[in-house]
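I hope you will forgive my troubling you with a question about protein structure. I set the record out below, with my sincere thanks for your time.
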Amino acid sequence: MPDDIRDAAARPGRTSSRQRPQRRTALALAGAALAAGGAVLWSFVVPDRADIAHGLRAAAIRYGHPAAWALLCLWCLLVAARAPVRARAAAAYAALAAYLAFLAGLLL
């Protein structure tokens, strides 16, 4: 009996271990497409507070949200490419930092 059939028989309702990387890649690419769309959308939709803010605060409000989405897109692409964990973590933390900068500029 082939391994994938034995795996499926042992765990009903689950996919074989050979199908999981394909599903992860497909989900990561779908996430990358959605995140890229979010980055483009938030590049044109800017909160009103960006017009009255100045300097670093205005930059955080205007560019922080699209940067966070772009970095999330990068993270999804790194997951799809099965990049090293350090690279994926760096992209995720950079996205978090960009979003926190956006929130700080918006709320403070």
The mean pLDDT is 86. The first helix runs from residue 3 to 10. The chain has one domain: 21-107. The CA atoms of residues 25 and 80 lie 4 Å apart.
